[in-house]
Amino acid sequence: MDSLLEFLAIVGTFETLFLIFSIGYAVYLCVTGVLPVLIRLGNGLAKRRIAIFAKADAAASIKSLLLDSKLFKEKNICEVTEANNLEASGNASVYLVYWPDWAEHIDAILSRKPDSCALVVYQPYDKGRIADELLKKLDGKRHTAISNFRGRLLNDIVTSIITTSYEKSSN
Question: At what angle do helices 150-163 and 35-47 cross, to 10 degrees?
Fold first, then answer.
């Protein structure tokens, strides 16, 4: 009987050590895998600026979409409504372009866009199609996405925020 109790005590010790190791490894995986993504998402939603390139009603509608989602702060959203005012995009880290309003000025936007800045082009399905040569030009730029649906637009913006780096501005 004593030998059985000694055997069970040894097995219990190994099980306890295995459990402690497993919990430690699970915590390590969370801290190195999940936590950095959550921090990046939190910083992105709280601090990253989004420049909306759209005119009049489209700009108001897209801004309303972003604010209604409760993911973005109004102070982090700026509107660029005229081609001669591209510098209004400031130090935005995401460019959101409403294609029907800015198709003629996409070259100016692309030349202004830094490599670390995400570009999301919103081309509603009922407003025509982007020409193949322009699609090729957009595909040649880093961090570029094209959305045809408003729901997909939010997803592309959040994904862009997570996947591009956040650099603190000197402001």
Answer: 110
